[in-house]
Structure formats: C-alpha cells, structure tokens
C-alpha cells in the first residue's frame, strides 16, 4: 500500500529542503542526496493524489479544526479516501482522525465552538 499525499506535498518537500539549505542546516550536496532518497521512496511508496476539494471545503476544514489551509488539504484527503492520517503533530488533527474517517463534512467539535457573546 502506498501513502496518499496531495499534490501540494511536492511543493512542501521542495520548500523544506530550500529552507533547510537557506538556514545552513543542509548543504547543496546534502539537499541533492536527500532529494535522490526521497525520489526513490516516492516511486515505490507514495501516491500523489491530484483530486482536490474546493476552496470552500478546505476553508471549512481549516476553520473547524483550527488548521492552516495547507494542513486542511491533508486532512481532507485522508477523510475523502478513508485513510489514516500520518502526522507528527500532537495537536487537534490527531484527536479528530476517527471523526473525519466517517464524516463527509467537517463539524466543529463542541470544545472548539466559539463562546457565546
């Protein structure tokens, strides 16, 4: 089974390498080596999904779960494909993985509802 990632993933990988190099964390040679390794892994283990939800759907998910729109893209893909979400984020995303696996539209959890005015 391959990991599913949105098309945005390639840009995020490129940006991660770019920023690491710019900040002096990686040399150009290390970046090239890392990219070669990533390309090898990607061919055999990663499925780039080009289907995208609408801007409104991404915004709704981002609002509902207090995410960036970028993170909402990953969450929408996991929900749409009914796949587990792999993340290093210990925040709200992890708490709502099971909910998203069975819902078709994001809902704001009670703990995230705005306080009445």
Helix and strand succession? EHHEHHHH
Q: What structural class do you assign from the helix and strand content?
A: mainly alpha
Query: In what range is the share of β-strand residues?
Result: 5-15%
Mean pLDDT: 80
The 3D shape can be described as globular
**Major sheet characteristics:** 2 strands, parallel
User: Which spans have pLDDT < 50 for at least 5 consecutive residues?
Assistant: 97-102, 108-117
The tally of beta strands, per DSSP, is 2
Spatial arrangement of strands, main beta sheet: 1-2
- Number of helical runs? 6
Helix percent band: 55-70%
- The N- to C-terminal Cα distance equals 48 Å
Number of domains: 2
Radius of gyration: 17 Å
